[in-house]
Amino acid sequence: MSKAIQVNNLSKAYQLGEIGTGTISRDIERFIAKVRGKEDPFLKIGEENNRASKGQTGVVWSLKDINFEIEQGDTVGIIGRNGAGKSTLLKILSRVTAPTTGSIKIKGRIASLLEVGTGFHPDLTGRENIYLNGAILGMRKAEIKRKFDEIVDFSGVERYIDTPVKRYSSGMYVRLAFAVAAHLESEIMIVDEVLAVGDAEFQRKCLGKMGDVSKGEGRTVLFVSHNMAAVQKLCRDAIFLNNGNINAIGKTSNIVAEYLRSSTIQKSIYHISLPDNHESMMCYATQLQIEDVNGKLQQEIPIGHPWQIRVFFKVNQRAESFIIALSVYNSSDLVLRTSWSKKSDLSTGYYEAVFKEDQLIFSPGLYSLSLGLSNYEQSIHYLENMAEMTISDVSSSTLDQTIVRVNNVGVVLNPMYITIAESPVGKRI
Amino acid sequence: MIPATEEEWDIEITPKGSLFNLPLADIWHYRDLLLLLVRRDFVSFYKQTILGPLWFFVQPLFTTIIYTFVFGNLASIPTDGLPQPLFYLAGITAWNYFADCLVKTSTVFTANANLFGKVYFPRLILPLSIVVSNLIRFGIQMLLFFIIMIIYWIKGAHFHPTIYLLSFPILISLMALLGLGLGLIISAMTTKYRDLSFLVAFGVQLMMYLTTVIYPLSVVRSRYPSFAWLVEFNPMTSIIEAFRYGFLGQGTIIFSSLAVTTGTTLLILLVGIFIFNKVERNFIDTV
Lengths: 429, 287
Hints:
The structure holds two protein chains of two kinds.
Chain A: E1 3-15, H1 21-35, H2 41-44, E2 47-48, E3 59-71, E4 75-80, H3 86-93, E5 101-106, E6 110-113, H4 126-136, H5 141-155, H6 170-182, E7 188-192, H7 200-216, E8 220-224, H8 228-234, E9 237-242, E10 245-251, H9 252-262, E11 269-271, E12 283-291, E13 300-302, E14 307-315, E15 319-329, E16 335-340, E17 344-346, E18 349-357, E19 365-375, E20 378-392, E21 417-422
Helix pairs in contact in A: 4-5, 4-6, 5-6
Chain B: E1 11-13, H1 24-29, H2 31-46, H3 55-74, H4 84-106, H5 108-111, H6 113-116, H7 125-154, H8 168-189, H9 195-209, H10 217-223, H11 228-233, H12 235-248, H13 255-280, H14 283-286
Helix pairs in contact in B: 2-7, 3-4, 3-7, 4-7, 4-8, 4-9, 4-12, 7-8, 8-12, 8-13, 12-13
C-alpha cells in the first residue's frame, strides 16, 4: 500500500490576544531579525498550548512537531479535547492556512469538509447553490450536472429545490449541503464534526455514506469528532492529540479508551454536593465509593473481578417502600443496566447500601454511574452521571474461564445482590 | 536507505510558497467556480426585485442628472463642447467600473474570511470574479450610454466616434487590471492592520475629483496649468480621456501618458499579485 499523506515535523504557532499597536512593533522586530538572518524571535518564546493554564507569553504552539503517515484507503479518526489542535491540523491539511514549520505531502485530490454549506448564498435556490457549492469544493460543472439527481435524491429536499435556501429549515439546509459534499470525487476526504447536525435518520445516512466512501470506494478519510461511537464505527485507526502533540496513535479502540481515560479525573470516592434544602428532603445520598470485594477503595476494576459500590445515605423522615437504584452507562451514554434494591421501610437514620457483584462482565473502558433514591416509585434524590469508573483489561491468562467478552451495548437487568444495613460510619460523613 | 522523497506527491504543503508562483493551472481548473461566482453576484443582485437588472441603470442615470445640474449648470464647468449628460455619463460609467473593481477587491479578504477559512480554492478566483461581475455591470451601463448617445444623435448634437474607439478593449483591460492590482494591494495590507480600509471608501471618492470625470483635461490645462500635472499624473485620467475621445470625438489623448498608465498598471498588478500571494497563505490567522 502506498502512502496518501505524510506529515513531517508539522508545527503551527498562534498569536494570542488582540492584534493592535503592540503587534506592529513585534512585526518590525521579526522583520529585522529576518533581514539579519536570525531566528524568528516570535517562535522562540512559543509555549505548549494548554488553554486552561495561564502562560508566560502571547504565543502558543497549536501543533508542535507532529509526524505521522496515512496509507491510501485508511480511515483515520482524530480525537482530542477542545483546543488539542485537531481543527488546526485539518485546516493545514486542507490548505486553508499554512504551517509555521514542517511540511505535508499529499497524494491525490483532497476535499475538505470543515463546515457544511460553505459559500451557500441565502438568496439562491437549492439548485443554484448545489452548483455553486460544488464548484467551491472543487467540482467541475459537468461533474455536478452528472450527479445532480443523485445529490438531490440523497438530500431528500427535492420539493424545495427551486426555493431560495433562506426559506429552508436548518435541517434541510444541512442535508442539502452534506449531500453536495458527499458526492465529491476526491482521493482524500477530510471531515470535521459535521455529523452533529441533522436528524437521527440523516446522521445514520451520513455515517453510512462515509462508510461507503472509505470501505467501498477505497478512499482515504480523515474524520474529526467528539462522538466516540461514530469514530469507533468508521475508523480503523485513530490519532489522539493533546495540547498540540500526538499523544497516541494506533488502533481506534485502544486510542479511544486511552482518550476517555485521560479525559476524566479518576476517583474512588465521590462526595455528593447537596442542595441547600437537603434537610427537608425525605432522604439523600452523601457519598459513593467504588471498592473491591474486601471494601478497599479502587479506581479501576479489572474485568472479571468481584467488585462493589458503597453508597452512604441519610433518611430524614421515615421512608416507606424505599428503593435505591444504580445505573451503569457506557461512554456513549447508553444505559447498560440498572440495579435496584428490594422495597423496604426505613426509619430515620444513617444507612449505607452496598451493590455487589461477583464478576464484572463489561468490556474494558470508561463507564459512568447514576444513582437514585425513591419511595413509592417517586424519585427523591436523583444524581445523573455522578461518578465515573474504569474497567481495565487484564491479561487473558488471569481471566476466569467463565467470562465472556461482552459487547459494550448489552443490557443486563438487576444482576447485583444488594444489602442495606444501619451505618454508624455514615454519621461522620 | 531509500529516501521517502522517491514517491511522487501531488501536493506539498510548506510554510512558505514561492511568491511569483501564479497557480494558473489551478485557476483554470476552477474556471467553473469563477463563472458561478459571477452568476451568483449577478443573480443575487436583483433577486426579489421587480425591475431586475434595470436597477443597474439607476445609479449612473441619477448621478448624471445631478452632475448635469450641479457641475454643468450651477458651476458651469465646460464639457469640451459635448452635451453635458453624455460627457458625464461617459466619465461616470468608466470611473464606476474602475472604482467598483478597486473597492470590492480591496475587501476581498475581510468580506470572504468565512469562505476562505473553510475551503481551499485558488484565492485569486474571487478577485477575478469581482472584475468579471463588474464587467457585466459595466456592459449593461454601456448600454445606457449607447441609448443616451442615440437620443442625442437623433437630436443632432455634435459628436462623432473616432478610430480610437478600437482601443476600447485595451482601455477596459487597463481599468480592470488597475482596479484589481490596487485592490489586491489594499486587501493584502488590511488583513492584519485595518487602518487602510478606512481610506479606501472616501479615498476613491476624492480620487474621482482628480480624474477628468466632471471636467475635461483641456479646462484644467488652460485654467490651472500649475496643477494640471496632478490630474495628468492620475493613471485613470488618460484612460477616461481616451475613452471619451473614442466614443465622442472630444478629449485629450496623450500617448506618452497612456504608455505610462500601461506601465504603471502592470507594475501595480505585479506588486498586487506578489503581496496577495504572500498574505494569502496565512491571512486567516490574523484577519
